[in-house]
Amino acid sequence: MKKQILVAGLVLISAFSFGQKKEIKKAEKAIKSNEFNEALGYLNDAEGMLASADNEMKAQFYAARGEAYMGSAGSDFQKLKMSAEAFQQALELNPNIESQVSVPLQNLRAKLINSAVSDQNSEQYKMAAEKLYTSYMITKKDTSDLYFAASNSVNAKDYPNALKYYQMLVDLGYTGATKEFVATNKETGEVEPFDNKNQRDIAIKTGEYIKPEERVAESKRGEVLRNMTLIYVEQGDSDKATKLMKTARAENPTDVYLMRADADMSYKMGDIAKYNELMNKIVATDPENPEIYFNLGVGSAELGEDEKAIGYYKKALELKPEHEGALINLAVVKLKGEDKLVEQMNSLGNSSADNKKYDELKEQRKQLYMETIPYLEKAVELNPENKGVARTLMNIYSQMGEDSKAKAMKAKIEAMGG
């Protein structure tokens, strides 16, 4: 009797296995005919018998479900997410199935990434981040998806998820360093990157490019650590920020990006002296970069070192004459002296000595305006929509007695709705 029961049990298991396989095959056939909802119906029928299946058959089931969800999803992210989760389960159960599902996996990731790009362009950063993270989690191989998920989370101010993704990248040893195929454009003399070696080689054959080279793109590890520290500062966790930066700098003390990250962190934490110290070290590594001098100007102005700030802003403008920020900030620092002059002028009496002093101060004020006007005029020329700068320039014109220029600037402000 026991033997009969055992045989019956074996037959029962075989029948269930056969039923599962049959339903999965029917689902796969429906998928090939683009009958995705029909396929999901067959898979639902098979799911109840799944517990007794081996991992290989379970993987086959989840792979089919992944394809069916993807095919029926359209732009429905929830279905795309269910598709991704199904494929992920299939790969965990049977890693060898990856070659079989490589095409649908590529199609799914393309859908998720393209949709994320669209969300990013419309500033739906949180949704873009979720789609990119979903894309990464399918195979956990393309860390660039995780990196961009973190970046979008930062833009969305979703700092907990940003930290989660960045920490995953750090734990994975992510650098983001990739090989680039470049060549020099004969006409412009500029080094230009190509998508792949084949494209670069074709460009060389046209004769329009020379000096084919391979180079490694700059590591993004510094940026990852920088963003993590700034998020910790934003959250008020300066201890974690300081500890993380200390570790990162110890790993590579000459990494300029990390030096800049340390400087940014110091600035955020109010340690302007350390910020300036670090920025001066960075200047030595890239003395032709106007942004470095601009940032040094900001730091010096914060410390009340106005003359140093002016010098840095002028250096930034020497390297980049159309640097709007440097033009405006230079004017702001110069105009700081106006309040003191006006205060002195208002404190004077009516004696001949006071009148003489008043005229001297008035002339100093006029000279201050004359020095400032060119920077403000250039800033308005670069950005005619900046009402704050236009209004300041209008007031200076009025103080200088240049009524026609003041009226013209007033008309511009009114045209902007100001």
UniProtKB/TrEMBL annotation:
<keyword id="KW-0677">Repeat</keyword>
<keyword id="KW-0802">TPR repeat</keyword>
<dbReference type="InterPro" id="IPR050498">
    <property type="entry name" value="Ycf3"/>
</dbReference>
<dbReference type="InterPro" id="IPR011990">
    <property type="entry name" value="TPR-like_helical_dom_sf"/>
</dbReference>
<dbReference type="InterPro" id="IPR013105">
    <property type="entry name" value="TPR_2"/>
</dbReference>
<dbReference type="Pfam" id="PF07719">
    <property type="entry name" value="TPR_2"/>
</dbReference>
<feature type="repeat" description="TPR">
    <location>
        <begin position="290"/>
        <end position="323"/>
    </location>
</feature>
<dbReference type="InterPro" id="IPR019734">
    <property type="entry name" value="TPR_rpt"/>
</dbReference>
<protein>
    <submittedName>
        <fullName>Tetratricopeptide repeat protein</fullName>
    </submittedName>
</protein>
<feature type="repeat" description="TPR">
    <location>
        <begin position="64"/>
        <end position="97"/>
    </location>
</feature>
